[in-house]
Write a structure and sequence with these properties.
103 residues, alpha+beta, three-stranded antiparallel β-sheet
Length: 103
């Protein structure tokens, strides 16, 4: 079971349910949170497979941003307590950066 959180201006295509199902099926088996979009640059070495990246910092180098913003997120319901523990363990700040971690 999953929960999807979208920004208010995200537009979903006709086949969005099928697309999300395919994304879940291609995700790493231990995922808790999937970010479904960002702006900025990505690093080839962060690739997990042909669909997913596991971002590693730094997330800003000079004027270059990596994996910035969050257009949509998908959470596994059984992993929401894990995500909340992670957020609560940090100081107040930008939610986009608080949702990126490597365990």
């Amino acid at each position: 079971e999953v929960v999807v959180v979208l920004e208010d201006d995200v537009k979903m295509g006709v086949y969005w349910r099928e697309h999300l199902r395919n994304l879940v099926n291609s995700a790493p088996p231990d995922w808790a949170l999937l970010r479904l979009g960002f702006w900025g640059t990505q690093r080839r070495e962060d690739a997990v497979n042909g669909f997913w990246l596991k971002p590693k910092g730094p997330f800003k180098v000079g004027k270059t941003y990596f994996y910035a913003s969050t257009l949509a997120q998908m959470y596994r319901v059984d992993q929401i307590p894990r995500v909340l523990r992670r957020i609560r363990s940090q100081t107040v700040g930008d939610i986009d950066s608080k949702l990126m971690w490597n365990e």
